[in-house]
Write a structure and sequence with these properties.
Blueprint (H helix, E strand, L loop, with lengths): L11 E4 L4 E4 L7 E6 L10 H20 L2 E6 L17 H9 L3 H18 L15 H14 L2 E4 L2 E4 L1 H7 L10 H6 L16 E6 L15 E3 L1 H13 L3 E7 L3 H16 L4 E7 L2 E3 L2 E2 L10 H6 L11 H9 L7 E3 L1 H23 L13 H10 L4 H19 L7 H18 L13 H19 L3 H13 L3 E5 L2 E5 L1
Parallel strand pairs: 3-4, 3-9, 9-10, 11-13
Antiparallel strand pairs: 1-2, 5-6, 6-7, 7-8, 11-12, 14-15
The structure holds adenosine monophosphate (AMP) and zinc ion.
Adenosine monophosphate binds next to α1 and β9.
């Protein structure tokens, strides 16, 4: 943690509700409650989804750095999310289950495991609680009952709808996106004769099941399943209270999912669910939002291997994470080979300098001024988590590191310790970047390549081909590898 201690740190975060940066004041001193909408686990997460979760990982990590005790809740949507985010039609899980001839819960299990695997490769921290929609059906039914009691919902043959126009008489339905109800109504289609809804903006809280519906539960209104928006209201209030500090998600969730969550929570608990609403911007490909439906969704594994028609080559998970940290979470980030290549170079330079920093020798005095680096990095993060500015400060410090390394400048013992600590803190703890050599399965090919070289060296030694064996050892050492001969062969690290 910084010199100041978190009580003195003034953190400003952009609140979608007020459309400006606001000083962050937690509800409970020293503590943060944060809810982030998790993935709908009916298919592989694409890189766009990952951007949102990596952005919130950065935010979570910075709160931890400041010394807050954070309860970070990120749900798993494993029921109730219908095709096209609508109130009728096929459930995404049931559709996939039929397609793959599996149980819906097998679909959920398969893609939940895949999601965790990918986020682990990207070095994101697990949330404190990861609740599932299917594990909170009774909580969701309770909310529906309360909203019915408060008069903001109505039943139509086993389905319960939220009455948006009635709600808007007492509250502001469009508060999150700053839209008036009339404008919103204009943008929606007319109700058809067969529609059960009273109003065009009404949405389902609870949906009546058909006999063939695979996942359904008993309720006071018959067998059915919960609406997608309802699950987040239920799980956030259960673990964080009726009003908590931060609610987050991708920007695409603002207009409907989060707008409806606010309305549900207000109608049920008579209080706004969250004080700060944070939204991450979209990852785009040639300016078009990455999504499954647009057919431009890269899977992280395709990116790591380079196995995709749009990719020139593969990129390591940490290069991709660095690429994401180089843009602010509220800016769009466009995906291209050129941008990734630049990030690969930049990340390599940063990590080279970081490795160099570990080996610098201290002098009696400092001829370079690195004293303000921590404060500058903190100021950048305190300005709505501005990670690109943090990176540019670290790059400024790299110049000093290289000059000290070349013997052109000096640094004292105390300054060196602090510089090493700032680099470790911001690179590893806050930005969540790790040296490639510490990466696990994502970097398997690289590890295998080094093993291969050292096995060739071993063979050369056995053949008394000292020229080859020395060449491999010397050149790897010059690149920064430490090679140790053991009785079973060799060990190496970087
Ligand atoms: P889903 O699994 O579709 O419910 O989405 C999970 C999260 O990923 C949500 O917070 C979305 O807003 C977010 N998301 C979806 N597409 C993108 C994208 N192209 N860029 C950034 N975030 C995205
Ligand atoms: Zn949600």
């Amino acid at each position: 943690m910084g010199d100041l201690g978190f009580m003195e740190q003034k953190l400003y975060i952009y609140n979608t509700l007020s459309r400006k940066k606001e000083l962050f004041v937690p509800i409970h001193e020293n503590r943060v409650g944060m809810y982030v909408c998790g993935p709908t686990v009916y298919s592989d997460v694409h890189l766009g989804n990952c951007r949102t979760f990596i952005s919130f990982d950065l935010i979570y990590r910075y709160f931890l750095y400041l010394g807050y005790k954070v309860r970070y809740v990120r749900n798993i949507t494993d029921a109730g999310h219908l095709e096209g985010d609508r109130d009728e039609g096929d459930d995404k899980f049931a559709k996939k289950a039929k397609l793959e001839q599996l149980e819906p819960m097998e679909i959920v299990q398969k893609y939940t495991i895949g999601f965790h695997e990918i986020l682990n490769i990207f070095n994101t921290l697990p949330p404190s609680i990861e609740p599932t929609a299917t594990g909170h059906i009774s909580e969701q039914i309770e909310i529906v009952k309360k909203i019915l009691e408060s008069g903001y919902a109505y039943e139509k043959s086993g389905t319960i709808y939220f009455d948006v126009e009635k709600y808007n008489k007492d509250f502001d339905y469009g508060i999150l996106t700053n839209r008036k109800l009339d404008d919103l109504l204009e943008g929606t289609r007319e109700l058809g004769g067969q529609d059960e809804k009273k109003g065009r903006l009404d949405f389902a809280l609870w949906i009546k099941a058909k006999p063939e519906t695979l996942m359904q539960w008993p309720s006071p209104w018959g067998w059915g399943f919960p609406g997608w928006h309802l699950e987040c209201s239920a799980m956030s209030s259960k673990y964080l209270g009726d009003t908590f500090d931060i609610h987050g998600g991708g920007m695409d969730l603002q207009a409907t999912h989060h707008t409806n969550e606010i309305a549900q929570s207000q109608a049920c608990n008579h209080t706004a669910p969250a004080n700060y609403w944070l939204h991450t911007n979209m990852l785009t490909v040639n300016g078009v939002r990455m999504s499954k439906s647009a057919g431009n969704g890269f899977l992280p594994k395709e990116l790591f291997t380079g196995n995709h028609p749009l990719l020139d080559k593969g990129y390591s998970p940490m290069t991709v994470r660095f690429f994401m940290a180089q843009s602010h979470y509220r800016s769009t980030l466009d995906f291209s080979n050129e941008a990734l290549q630049a990030s690969e170079k930049g990340f390599g330079r940063l990590m080279e300098g970081y490795a160099r920093l570990q080996k610098l020798k201290a002098s009696a005095t400092s001829s370079v001024d690195t004293a303000g680096l921590r404060t500058r990095c903190e100021e950048a993060m305190n300005d709505d988590f501005n990670s690109p500015i943090v990176i540019s400060h670290l790059f400024d410090a790299l110049r000093a590191i290289n000059l000290i390394h070349d013997g052109k400048e000096t640094i004292s013992e105390a300054d060196l310790k602090e510089l090493q600590s700032v680099f470790k803190t911001f690179i590893e703890d806050v930005l969540g970047l790790k040296p490639e050599s510490e990466m696990g399965s994502g970097n398997e090919a690289y590890k295998q390549a080094i093993d291969l070289l050292l096995n060739i060296r071993l063979q050369a030694k056995q053949n008394k081909d000292w020229a080859t064996s020395d060449k491999i050892r010397n050149e790897l050492t010059a690149l920064g590898f430490e090679i140790k001969d053991t009785k079973d062969g060799f060990e190496w690290k970087i």
